[in-house]
Amino acid sequence: MPASRGFSDTFGDALLSANVPVPEGVVGPDGQPAPKRFNVYRNNVVVSLCEAMAATYPAIQNLVGEEYFTALAREFVTQHPPTSAVMLWYGGDFPSFIDAFPPLADYPYLGDVARLEWSWLVSYHSADAAPLDPAVLGSLPTEELPEARFQAHPATQLLSSLWPIHTLVEANRFSVGSNKPVDMASGEAVLVTRPDVDVALTALRAGGDVFFKALLDGEALGSAASMALEANEGFDLSENLADALKTGAFAALM
Amino acid sequence: MPTRENEPFGADHVIPARAGVGFKPEHAPEILSRVRSVSFFEVHAENYMGAGGAPHRILEAIREKYPLSLHGVGLSIGGEGPLDREHLARLKSLNQRYEPGLFSEHLAWSTHDTTFFNDLLPVPYTRETLNRVCDHIDEVQDEVGRQMLLENPSTYVAFAQSTMGEIEFIADVAKRTGCGLLLDVNNVHVSCTNHERSAADYLHDFPMELVQEIHLGGHAPDVDDLGRPLLIDAHDRKVDEQVWRLYEDVITRFGPIPTLVEWDNDVPNWPVLVEEAQAADAILSRAGSTALRKAV
Fold first, then answer.
1. Is B138 helix (H, G, I), strand (E, B) or coil?
2. Which residues of chain B lie closer than 8 angstroms to A126, CB-CB?
3. pLDDT at residue number B290
4. Average pLDDT of B18-22?
């Protein structure tokens, strides 16, 4: 590597910070420095990254408003620029950035809303797989059911929150303007699945968070059901099992 | 080019010397349900680097019916650091999966150290950068196992350290690496306006015999620090009249070349994009029949 700084060191340093001067030798047609021309690049970089964030986090944008979101995204993209050329994967650090962003301390649910939107995106781009055929489970002898273990579908994710994240994402992303009242005191667990190409967000029933976490961790069906029942006496195995099959959360039995 | 025993897609991979457009998923229903109105599609490779899901499902349906051109926007061929080997592997895998008729990248950089800037940034034209760009293109062609096309950039600034002209640089790269060229006529107009040069002279000097694809697109007018015209390569509107004239001159002189209309921002309805492609097709057809008459 050359010891001196190359053109992309100085150019790159100045792109993400308006406080870093335009690099020397970057000129207009007369050979003179041309800061406004350089600013076209600064603008392209920051605006395109903010647009990527807005595309990934529409519910956050709806919750905080477009103007605030743009300012927030600008803070994020300049502090956490992409590290891969695959922009599909950009922005996964945004939920923790929101959690740690002091001006948003009075809105503690935003981080988990953002986590759910990120999970939606991850699921959307996950590998294809056929969901578990209910007949496969149905064909197991009853006495073997408690020992059944499930292989997660590649698109499946589980999120549990102290906040009503499913309701908030529905209201601010998929049915904007519905103005349904949201009970902020009730937490929600959400199963994110994509049995074919469409991502589905399913709010889980009582004990479903413990049950699905156990199954996704590789616990047998019987032990996952006991854990769920212990955590929440309202847990209903047959309803939750129906959710598992209907949502396509699993790809196969192990 | 190796012949394949099994043609996995219904459509041929060879891109005809007709007009195509940049593929936008929102147009997919109309493209797949209506009669054919463009001759090929081009996609940005990076949008199809996810593992599965809707993007690949839609692209497979498009590829089933149309030839495809694969256009990378993130490899950073002009960068000072080494190429990202994982990214190269992803490009190789997309080439294998979709068998595009053409595969192209930019004379630009976008990655430095660990940061990806998501923009096509300018390269100084020196012996040192020339050697590096050639090494990178050699690496791409070796790894992906096919020829790539290099696209001329649109730029807003120049570097005082440059010791070569852009055409000399591009021609040298092509000669040393055996890569083909993608001539973006809008980029020629944008850069030549921005650097106060003649676009007609640029096109006259450009090594046209190496051009396998042409890009057309819209740009946004602005002014620089001193009020001089500064054109921004925005891909957000129709192709400018002056760009159409430059394009027609090129096609009249060199004959039909596969031509792509790019419209990436403020994407219009499908019929508007088709009109742009048909305008290019009309120019290609006229040149084609003239060439045929000369040949007869």
1. helix
2. 50-53
3. 77
4. 98
Q: Assess if residue B169 is contained within a domain.
A: yes
CB B42 within 8 A of CB B273: no
The answer to whether B159 contacts A81, with C-beta atoms less than 8 Å apart, is: no
pLDDT digits (tens, 9 = 90+) for B89-132: 999 999 999 999 999 999 999 999 999 999 999 999 999 999 99
Contacts with A209 (C-beta within 8 Å, 6 or more apart), sequence order: A158, A160, A189
pLDDT band at A4 (very low <50, low <70, confident <90, very high): low
How many structural domains are present in chain B? 1
Pick among A4, A5, A7 to test the B interface (most B CBs inside 10 A):
A7
pLDDT at A122 over 80: yes
CA distance B82 to B68: 28
Task: Give how far A144 is from chain B: nearest CA, Å.
Answer: 34
Within a domain: B294: no
Show residues of chain A in contact with B51, CB under 8 Å: 125-128, 154
- Long-range CB contacts (< 8 A, 24+ apart) of A137-143? A137/A245, A137/A253, A140/A253
Task: For residue B232, give the H/E element and its range.
Answer: strand B229-232
| Residues of B with Cβ-Cβ distance to A10 under 8 angstroms | none
The verdict on A107 touching B (C-beta cutoff 8 Å) is no
Q: Which domain holds residue B47?
A: 19-289
- Predicted TM-score (pTM) of the model is 0.94
d(CA B93, CA A178): 44
Q: How confident is the model at residue B7 (pLDDT cuts 50, 70, 90)?
A: low
CB contact under 8 A, B116 and A84: yes
Residue B197 belongs to a domain with what CATH number? 3.20.20.150
Using CA atoms, how far apart are residues B49 and B75, in angstroms rounded to an integer? 13
CB contact under 8 A, A12 and B112: yes
Q: What is the dihedral of CA A201, A206, A209, A214, to 10 degrees?
A: -130
Cβ A9–B119 below 8 Å, yes or no?
Answer: no
Q: Which residue among A16, A38, A126 sits closest to B51, beta carbon to beta carbon?
A: A126
pLDDT digits (tens, 9 = 90+) for A138-190: 999 999 999 999 999 999 999 999 999 999 999 999 988 877 788 898 999 99
Is A101 exposed, middle or buried (CB count within 10 Å of its CB: 0-12, 13-18, 19+)? Answer: middle
Tokens of B30: 């109309």
Q: Which CATH class is domain A127-254?
A: alpha beta
Query: How large is the ipTM?
Result: 0.94
Q: Is A29 on the interface with B (CB under 8 A)?
A: yes
Helix axes A237-247, A221-231, angle to 10 degrees: 120
